[in-house]
């Protein structure tokens, strides 16, 4: 297995096609069939390939500041982590998460953040589930337009501290879209 860190603007046609097949097969009919992102392009991707150079896993990364209870935090958001169905349960998801940990360590990142329907993989890798009041920019994924601000208590949020900073319960302004 090998992992490549690829800036979104460097993804070429053949890789884009492979990623499109992976994300649509992983996330189903609700995922847009004409692009490799759901709401917004990530800044960077980690792409995992096997010995035959076939794409078997990926995750998008979004780096930005957020406002947590009036304090700015530097956050690396994980978007659409997925592994080819035939290669699941081989530790590829955990491999990706370990690579992200190593990537973050020397950088000014306070927390890694994600939204998960199934917390099991992330819990095994040191992520903690939290419930918090969130505010974010709402995007209609079909028309790709801003439709307003969302405010609600979110229970699917998971975080991992990178440099020992403690996550404070309370209000989180994502200062952008919801992954």
Question: How is this fold's topology laid out?
Answer:
Elements: E1 2-7, H1 13-27, E2 44-49, E3 55-68, E4 71-83, H2 92-104, E5 111-115, H3 120-124, E6 128-140, E7 145-161, E8 171-177
Which descriptors would you attach to this protein?
single chain; 179 residues; alpha+beta; Aminopeptidase; six-stranded mixed β-barrel; 3 helices; 18% helix; GNAT_dom
Give a short synopsis of this structure.
This protein is an alpha+beta fold and 179 residues long. It has 3 helices and 8 strands.
Q: What is the spatial order of strands in the main beta sheet?
A: 3-4-5-7-6-8
Assigned CATH architecture: 3-Layer(aba) Sandwich
Number of domains: 1
Q: Considering DSSP H and I runs of 4 or more, what fraction of the residues is helical?
A: 10-25%
How far apart are the termini? 27 Å
What top-tier CATH class fits best? Alpha Beta
Q: Please tally the helical runs, counting DSSP H or I stretches of 4 or more residues.
A: 3
Query: How many E-type strands?
Result: 8
The radius of gyration computed from the alpha-carbon positions, rounded to a whole number of angstroms, is 16 Å
Mean pLDDT: 95
Protein name: GNAT family N-acetyltransferase
EC number: 2.3.-.-
GO molecular function, one term: acyltransferase activity
Pfam families: Acetyltransf_9
């Amino acid at each position: 297995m090998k992992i490549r860190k690829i800036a979104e603007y460097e993804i070429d046609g053949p890789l884009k096609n492979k990623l499109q097949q992976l994300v649509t097969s992983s996330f189903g009919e609700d995922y847009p069939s004409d692009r490799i992102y759901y709401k917004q392009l990530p800044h960077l991707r980690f792409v995992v390939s096997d010995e035959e150079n076939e794409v078997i896993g990926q995750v998008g990364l979004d780096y930005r500041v957020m406002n947590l209870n009036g304090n700015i935090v530097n956050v690396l958001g994980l978007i659409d982590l997925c592994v080819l169905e035939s290669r699941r349960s081989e530790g590829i998801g955990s491999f990706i998460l370990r690579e992200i940990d190593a990537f973050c360590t020397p950088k000014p990142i306070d927390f890694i953040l994600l939204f998960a329907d199934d917390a099991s993989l992330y819990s095994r890798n040191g992520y903690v589930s939290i419930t918090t009041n969130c505010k974010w920019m709402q995007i209609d994924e079909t028309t790709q337009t801003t439709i307003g601000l969302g405010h609600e208590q979110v229970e699917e949020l998971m975080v991992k501290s990178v440099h020992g900073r403690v996550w404070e319960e309370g209000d989180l302004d994502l200062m952008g879209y919801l992954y």
